[in-house]
Amino acid sequence: MPAAPEPQSEQELLTRAWDLAGLTLGELGARVAISVPDDSVRGKGVAGQILEKVLGASAGSRAEPDFTRLGIELKTIPLDARGKPKESTFVCSISLSAMADTDWERSTVLKKLSKVLFVPVEAASDTPLRNRRVGRAYLWTPTPEERELLRNDWERLAEMIATGDVEQITGHLGEVLQVRPKAPHGRSRRRAPDEEGAVQWTMPRGFYLRPTFTGALLARLRAEED
Amino acid sequence: MPAAPEPQSEQELLTRAWDLAGLTLGELGARVAISVPDDSVRGKGVAGQILEKVLGASAGSRAEPDFTRLGIELKTIPLDARGKPKESTFVCSISLSAMADTDWERSTVLKKLSKVLFVPVEAASDTPLRNRRVGRAYLWTPTPEERELLRNDWERLAEMIATGDVEQITGHLGEVLQVRPKAPHGRSRRRAPDEEGAVQWTMPRGFYLRPTFTGALLARLRAEED
DNA sequence: CAGGATCCACTATTGGATCCCG
DNA sequence: CGGGATCCAATAGTGGATCCTG
Lengths: 226, 226
Hints:
homodimer, three-stranded mixed β-sheet, 8 strands, 31% helix, DNA-binding
């Protein structure tokens, strides 16, 4: 009834994930005692929470991979009828003050994205949440090219944040990785250092992967299956 | 007052074209006795007609390059405020019955595009036609990569036309070259051979270059100036 | 009709705003 | 809040329809 035990190997995790293909969120939610809201506005994160429990993710809300022992992050990804991602993929929140003290190789973004299990979920908006089906999961590790794209964007954005230009950042920046608000509403504010190191109040933000990027990597992983 | 004489060399044409940069369509139209309509709907082709006369194009409405002696085709290209093409570029009409009897190397598309003088024209829709300014002209010859893109699209589309599948063609096909209606209105019809070689009536169509393609080639030409 | 093209309604994309849970 | 994400109004893009001249 409650959460599954943590998988002990990559193969065990993959086998378990593949067994879910074709099942609906309603069916999977029942397994782990999570009820699926009728209103999709009220159920934004529910697919992710159900799959965490069904697959035995361990990390909870910590800044570690969902499958701690395996170093694997779990992401559900909503696909439209043609199999393309319907939304961007949230990676992590941005600690504005910490950005100045880190580099790409030590960044949370790279840690989160080093190994990701993508679980596709049907996302046609006219299908009720509980009836949406899970697809075949893919385990992704960035290719050198993909890492380079991510690093380029991250370093550009990190520099803007570190130098206090955070208010200049918009969702337009970044070829594959973008910075967007990550807050309960548009009036949220948190402290951040400004250009002169003084305090400014700014909106909480997070890193997101663009749909074109996740769509391309999924296409590559599908092609490699053959 | 009337048309300029035909330029006798590429350099003469380029020099003449560069001298026009910064002038408005109203100013240029006055030079060649073409008045610019106030209503942009009534002035769709007027920029092209003015520049033909101002630069001394020779071919008129024949299936030859505008500058016959130089083998150069003239195209005005509407740019938005950021310098990107606002519209697709018409290349030529399609003779449905002739498509089956030709190949890429002999095609009208390749002939028209072998050497093109692109003359940018401001196209912000809130600027009256007569006040829109001409930019610096670029002479384009397709790179091997660009020719390959064009050939791929052309061959795919030509085959559909030759085999009578012309009704299956939509503007969605073609990465850089597309087929779209080219007619005074949606009820126009002309004869075409169908799958079995019999007669069908279909809408007149033309080949067009996508804005992403012309935008990319202009960006390349601008970069090469430095 | 061929050549000179752009218009503009509709679709696709997007990025700022928002929702739930522990 | 941080982690799980999607919503949806506004913008960008596209392609079928259209306009003028000789």
